[in-house]
């Protein structure tokens, strides 16, 4: 779970998840209220996790005989699962770091 770089308190899964699904770059710490940003290395990781299911929409119908719609539903379910594990990989930073 991410730790606030300002006050050092650990965010809970729920607190992190709520902040993640808002898709805002700045996330206010629930303890000290200070704006926190996702660190560059963490952003690369969560972006990769988020993009992983996309090729499955095209690959699954070929290898499993699923229709594209069934594959799409499956990918949405997988994506929801991946978003729910993202708080475990999230790292915070006091400043907005450049991507690379
Ligand atoms: Zn804090």
TrEMBL record:
Highest taxon listed in the record's lineage: Bacteria
TM annotation in the entry: 46-63, 69-90
UniProt keyword terms in alphabetical order: Membrane, Transmembrane, Transmembrane helix
Name of the featured protein: TIGR04104 family putative zinc finger protein
Organism, as annotated: Lentibacillus salinarum
């Amino acid at each position: 779970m991410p730790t606030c770089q300002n006050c050092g308190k650990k965010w809970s899964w729920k607190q992190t998840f709520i902040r993640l699904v808002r898709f805002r770059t700045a996330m206010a710490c629930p303890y000290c209220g200070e704006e926190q940003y996702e660190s560059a290395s963490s952003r690369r990781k969560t972006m990769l996790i988020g993009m992983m299911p996309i090729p499955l929409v095209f690959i699954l119908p070929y290898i499993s005989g699923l229709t594209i719609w069934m594959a799409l539903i499956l990918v949405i379910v997988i994506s929801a699962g991946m978003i729910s594990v993202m708080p475990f990989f999230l790292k915070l930073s006091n400043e907005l770091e450049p991507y690379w």
